[in-house]
Amino acid sequence: MKHFYEKKEVRGYQTIVDEDAGLDIIGFDRINLLPGETITVDSGEYELGLVILAGTCDIIAEDFKAFDKGSRNNVFAGKPTTIYIGRDTTYSVSAKGYLALEIGVCKVKADKKYEPFVIEADEVVTEHRGKLNWQRDVNDIITSKYEGRVDKIVLGETYGCPGQWSSYPSHKHDTDNFPFEVNMEEIYHFKVNPSQGFGIQVMYNDDFSLNESYLVRNDDTIAIKEGYHPVAAAPGYSIYYLWVMAGRSGRKLTPCDDPKHAWVKAVEAMV
């Protein structure tokens, strides 16, 4: 089972997380276009969240048209614009403006087909989470408020503060144990600011049969099938990760904190 996908520079449409990850229902690809370039893609069995990481584009999907979408030069310059595309849909992406276009293609196998729609940057809610040295900001893109408009996809962005931990206290979501935990696969796609920096992705489970760590740099990707998965940012560097999650037991996020470290939640209430 492959967890770590190192950055590769590919123009056009790039498949990143492949079948080697052992994931059943989610995937992650990327679109990189220069201004004036266009590609046409079919979503197949996947519903998609097309998160504009940088640049501006037009997107056309059957009768749906979204023009001049995207309002940030990079992921550290504002909130995202995202286009939802349902399964079995042919769509085209055209890069506009003067910047290279970069889109994160967040993929989830869907049973139902829903209509495309746009989530504008000003519709995205940002929450600050954590205390002390486990602080981060989270952009909720496709979460519970879109129930009935999407099938399984859950999607967002996390900004880890320099020298701090995020996705912490360590949590997992690899077992259906209602109402305490819901099984969901997840993918993280990373950016670092300044770009020469790095972070650490930790992955482990209760008996430590999974016990791995990865140095993650700009444009690396992590596939998470099981286990706890906290992230640390190196001092002096902000770390960003686009995350997509999905499972077969509903869309309600129900993570289970590592009981050895869940006590820090009590600290949050006191400081």
Can you describe what's shown?
Helices cover 3% and strands 47% of the residues. It has 271 residues and is mostly beta strands. The strands form 5 sheets. Strands 1-20-17-22-14-13-12 form a 7-stranded antiparallel sheet, with no helix packed on it. The chain has a 6-stranded antiparallel sheet with strand order 2-3-10-5-8-11, with no helix packed on it.
Distance between the termini: 40 Å
Sheet with most strands: strand arrangement:
1-20-17-22-14-13-12
Sum up the overall morphology in one term: globular
CATH topology, by name, is Jelly Rolls
Assigned CATH class: Mainly Beta
CATH homology-level superfamily: Jelly Rolls
Share of residues in strands = over 45%
CA radius of gyration: 18 Å
Judging by the overall fold, what is the CATH architecture? Sandwich
What class would the helix/strand composition place it in? mainly beta
Structural domain tally: 1
Order of helices and strands: EEEEEEEEEEEEEEEEEEEEEEEH
Largest beta sheet, briefly?
A: 7 strands, antiparallel
Proportion of helical residues: under 10%
Give me the number of helical elements. 1
Give the low-confidence spans.
none
Topology, number of strands: 23
